[in-house]
Amino acid sequence: MQQWKKHLAILGRVEAFDYDYMREGRKRPDPLPLLIAAHRAALRETRPDPAEAIFLIGKSMGGRIGCHLSLEENVTGVICLGYPLCGGGDRTKMRDRVLRDLKTPVLFVQGTRDSLCPLDVLGQVRAEMLAPHVLHVVEGGDHSLAVTKRALSAIDETQNDVDQRILRAIRVFVAQYAPGSTEPSAS
User: Fold this and answer.
1) Element (H, E) at 159
2) Residue with the larger pLDDT of the pair 187 and 93
């Protein structure tokens, strides 16, 4: 997320944080309520004025937890960089309930090679979502939105070109839901 923090800084103030289990060097994530509580604490530290427009941006689990938090806190939008829809890549372990419950606008940035979020499965979930949502597809992108060097070479691009397109999609999403506001918060 540190690389994305640098990229996102062109849009406005970005605050990043680590969950407790990460800071403590544990591999297993904390239970969902603890993750949400940590995310809430970071949000409150970042935004003293709850009326201020703010976007939660998270990579993988950070995006999923941002979605959960948006059910409880007033946020302008959620941006998910590689949403982990299928636990461990298993289509029977869906993490879709929160998406179906969302009312907050959400931008999904998903790679076509992401086994944790096959686009056909995400499409089925999106068809049932009530919240406004947008999908930005990263052709050839994996769960980290990285495109192979071979694929980049074939289209005469760099990963930075791909990342810049992602940033443009984020900028458009932010402008649509909070005109004049470009202050994303990252997790």
Assistant:
1) helix 159-177
2) 93
